[in-house]
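Ticket #4471: structure export looks truncated?
Reporter: QA, pipeline team
Priority: medium

Steps to reproduce: submit the single chain below to the structure queue and open the exported record.
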Amino acid sequence: MKIGLIGYGKMGKAIEAIALERGHEITARVNREHPIQEVNWEDIDVAIEFTQPNLAVQHMEICMKNHTPIVVGTTAWQKDLPKVNQLVSYLGGSLLHASNFSVGVNIFFEINRKLAEIMNKHKEYTVSMEEIHHVQKLDAPSGTAVSLANDIIEVHDHYNEWHLASENEENQSIAINALREPNVPGTHEVSYNSVIDSIRIEHIAHNRTGFALGAVLAAEFLFGKEGIFTMKDVLN
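Actual output as written to the record:
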């Protein structure tokens, strides 16, 4: 499969290494030196996009217009999802997006949701979250943390929104503490605390390999398909 990388930073290079190991070819590498306008779309089977929130929707639109399936790993653009959904439908495009492509994180999503269902019956516990990422990460909280919080909100009667821990909110909002430290691929923790004890689940990424592998698996899944998909479709 011929893969175009939209974004060729640390994540793009990690994806490239995994893709080559799995027998794929990298036919485009988009960055500041090689803008997306220079891409030969006829030489790309699937694009994988890891850039910035303010660029992601534009990149999706360009791929759709060039009939190129796209896997999007950039986060914090989801407010534009209705617009993107319309674009995919209108152009008959192919899109797979996820807040996190790691297989381990997606297992963590399922554990988090199940735990929230259980804790919904135990009102004496309050939930809080913490996420830690590298200092280059622009969005806070992370897309993964937002997904975790939204899954809790969906099944736990007490919570109806989330907020950054630095902000003051009502007690029906989940506090997310977002920290930025050097050389941290990603850590997410969900805690339930009472006056008696605490229950905690945690996912720690040791490197970018899990994210890169998941992105390549997503590209393999998306090739030849039409419509909008998520990482759940890949894992199922």
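Status: closed, not a bug. The export was complete when the record was re-opened. Leaving a note from the reviewer for reference: Helices lie at 10-21, 53-65, 81-91, 103-119, 143-155, 209-222, 231-235.
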